[in-house]
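Q: For a teaching handout, I want to show students what a protein-ligand complex looks like in token form. Below are the inputs, and the small molecule is coenzyme A. Please produce the holo structure.
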Amino acid sequence: MKPPSELPAIRTSMLPKDTNAYGSIFGGVILSLIDLAAANEAERQAPHRYLTVAMDQIAFHAPVRVGDIVTLWAETLSMGRTSIRVRVKVLARARRSPHENEVTTAEVTMVAVDEAGRSIPILS
Ligand SMILES: CC(C)(COP(=O)(O)OP(=O)(O)OC[C@H]1O[C@@H](n2cnc3c(N)ncnc32)[C@H](O)[C@@H]1OP(=O)(O)O)[C@@H](O)C(=O)NCCC(=O)NCCS
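A: Here is the structure, written as tokens, with coenzyme A included.
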């Protein structure tokens, strides 16, 4: 297993298209970023095509607002035969603030698959 990356898996800013009518970001937008961050981390560990097989229970601790800079840190927890379990931590800060709020943390299991979508060993 490679050591944790010193770079975030994703850093992006939240746009008006990502918000509900009240100006805060849809939870589903953050879930989608978590999925992408976990896939990026799995690919960093071993270059395959991955599918998400499971995501654990998620609680949102702080809102994310339009314009916020959202950073997702991903760390591999374990590698099985065909699956990789990744922890993704989501932080958000207002554009001109140095302070980051912890939004949520998720554990995601990604499975390496072939072109037909069948699971394959991560390390051959
Ligand atoms: C991913 C998929 C191909 C796996 O099928 P499979 O090979 O028959 O599944 P298996 O039961 O052999 O499990 C494969 C690996 O996933 C793990 N796994 C399966 N279900 C899991 C779950 N609910 N939670 C955690 N890990 C799970 C298994 O432990 C195994 O890991 P290992 O090989 O490292 O030990 C199949 O479940 C699938 O296509 N799922 C849909 C994925 C998808 O489309 N995701 C996006 C949804 S929009």
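A: Two things your students might notice: Helices lie at 27-45. Residues 10-113 form a domain with the Thiol Ester Dehydrase; Chain A fold (CATH 3.10.129.10).
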